[in-house]
Structure formats: C-alpha cells, structure tokens
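Subgroup meeting minutes
Present: P.N., E.W., G.H.
Scribe: E.W.

1. P.N. recapped why we're keeping a running log of single-chain structure predictions: easier to compare across weeks, and new members can see raw inputs and outputs side by side.
2. G.H. added today's entry (443 aa).
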Amino acid sequence: MAVEPSTAGGAATAAQPAIVITPAYRRYALAILLLAYTSSFVDRSIVGILIEPIKNDLHLSDTQLGFMSGIAFAIFYATLGMPIAMLADRANRRNIISIAVFVWSIMTALCGLAQNFWQLAAARVGVGIGEAGSSPPSHSMIADLYPRDKRSGAMAIYSLGVYLGTMIGFVVGGWVAQHWGWREAFFVVGLPGVIIALLVRFTMKEPPRGHADGVAMEIQEKGQFKRAAAYLWKTRAARHVILGVTLTSFVGYGGLVWGAAFLIRSHGMTPEQVGLFLGPASGVVGGIGALSGGYLADRLARKDIRWNAWILTIAKILAIPFIIGFYLVDDTTTAILLYLPGLALGAFYLGPSFSMIQGLAPLHMRALAAAIMLFVLNIIGLGFGPQLVGLLSDALTGPFGSDSLRYALLFTSLINILAAFHYFHAGKVLKEDMDAAIAAETS
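Output recorded in log:
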C-alpha cells in the first residue's frame, strides 16, 4: 500500500513529529470522524421526535420547546466553538474531539433525568458545550488529509453524519419513546457515545498540518480570532458562503426540530410512525443528496472551481416547490412523495460549503475559520430557526388551530431563496479568492 509523506517535501517540522498517512488510514480516519459526527446529530436531533411527549409530560409551550431545542443549545455550542477551535489550531485535535464526544454523550443521557423545563434546558446546554469541540477540529483534520480536488467529496461523506444521526435519533427515539418513554430514549442514544470517544482517542493520530496541500508549517502559538474573522469578512466568497450556509441552516434546523411535530399534528401520525418515516428518509435520501452534492461539486469544479457554489444555487432553487408542496398538501402519501426530492436537493449544501471555507482559509486558522462559520450558522440557524418557528406557531394558533405549525414552517422555508442568492454570488468570486489564499501560503 502506498505511503504518503507526512509533510511537504518529506521533512517534519519541530512542531510536527514525522508520521505517515496512508490512503487506508485516511479512509479510516474519515470513517471515525463520521461516526463521531453521527453521534452528535443523534443526540442533537432526538429532541425533534420527542417534542410531543416532552411537551405533554412537562406541560411546555411551543415557545419554551423552541428555546430549549434552539437557543439554549446553540448559544453555548456556537460561542465555545471559537476558543476550542483556537486551541485546536495549535494543540492535538484528536484529543479535543475525544473529550467533546464524551461530554455530549453523558449530558444527553442526563436529559432523561430532567423534571422540569429549566433542568432539561440546562442538560441541553451541556450537550451544546460538548458538541462545540467536535466539528471545527474535524474540518481541519479532513482538510489536512484530503487535497482540494477531493475535499468536497470527503466533506460530503463527513456531512452524512447529519442524516445518519437524524435517522438513528428519529427511529430509535420514536420507537423507545413509544414503548418505554421519552426519558429512556435519551439514555439509549447518549451512553454509546462513550465508546466512540475511546475509538477517537486510541485509534486515530494527528495529521500534519498542511499535509494535503503540500505546505509544511509550524503550529501557531497564539490565537488568531480577530485576524480570522476579519479575513473571512473581507473575503467575498467566504462571506457569501457563510451567509448561504447560515440561511440554509436556519430553514433546516427549523424543519429538523419541528418536522415530527408537524406530521403528528397535521397528519395524525404517531411518534413511532414519524420516526420510521423521517428516520430512513433523512438517512437514505438525505445521505444520497449529501453525497451527490459533494460528488457533483468535485466533478464540475475540476473544470471550473466556481461550480462548488453554483451547484448549490441550482439545488436550492429546485428544492423550493417540493418543500412548499410538502407543507401545503393534506394527503399524507402525496406530502411524503413531495418531501423526498426536496430533502435530497436540500442536502447538497454541507460538503461543498465546508470544503469552500477550508479552501479559502489560511492553513494556520482552518479550525478557527470553521468555528467562525459554525458560530454564525448555529447562533442564527440553530438558535433562532426553531425559536422563530415556535413563536410563529404560537402566534398563528388563533386563526389556524393545530395547523399553525404548518404555516410557520412554510413561511420560514422561503428563506432558501436568499440562500441561493448568496451561493450564486460566492461562485462568481470563488476562483479569485481561493487562488489568493494559496498564493498567500506559498509566498
């Protein structure tokens, strides 16, 4: 099996001990990072399938549920992601990820012990604190393992964690909640994460920074937050990608948290039925969409790098009529048939978006660049997406009754149009800005 050199030119720096990265190990590392990301989305998304039993047991409003599943989680997840990313840009990323998986897994299990709104919100804060330490260092590691022409595909494989995690959370959570109770569902999905934390710590190794780009570098000893934030803001492609992924996530997280409740309220499905539908749909159809987006972006970008962004513009526009139909159609079978293509097209964005930010960021601040993107994405998308849907649902209860959630979700879904606009403008300047980033590293 071919062995790849550990640093550009085969020389290790003082900060980077010599190691080898084989193609087989690269695939294994990506699989373990995918496993960890899947675990995070199992623990994050399970709240969606449990909203109705939690609401009935703890007597909560939709506004409280939106706060608990959105802002309470997102504010700590997004804010702590930046100092952890600054640490990851100069410390061992593998160890940071391992600790993060352990923390969020334990805190998910503790959600099952909550007796009131504030206890449950505090436990979700703990989950957010743990998950803050996973994605930025994972993005940085993948960028060091995979070259630019394969990076969107690798990031798309990593992003399968969103859909596999949602599938597991909905199927397992729905079944356990139906037969045992919502508290037991948190225990069942939370505790296995401890095993994943051990796999990360004891079977992975830290890749040399800059390895896949053929650029050796010393680890930066000081944080670069202001410089990284200013760089991303002034870089036009990065600014538009971050706005596009944030608006997409605003819609996506609202649907993730409230989609099960919509099917229960407007289509009369049980939590178990919803789990058995939304789970496989998210895992299989969403996964196919994510892989397709990464594959098409890599393939088209070999001829013109701008297609990394433009493929997302097309997918966003094509998805909109399917999403509108899903929320407006009363027949459950027809609604489901409309939901599937909308889900596949909506899943295109993660791999190419993550890849573009890593390609636009300087090597020494890749984890921090990912954290800044995730901060904006999660504060606005995860924090306010579910919250706005909950507020709108409560406000529309008077005129629409149990269908208030239907129209709240329909209204927020139209934000995808703005996301398409930003991806289009990101593509127009993507090549110029990526070339500038590479020139800055090699000059």
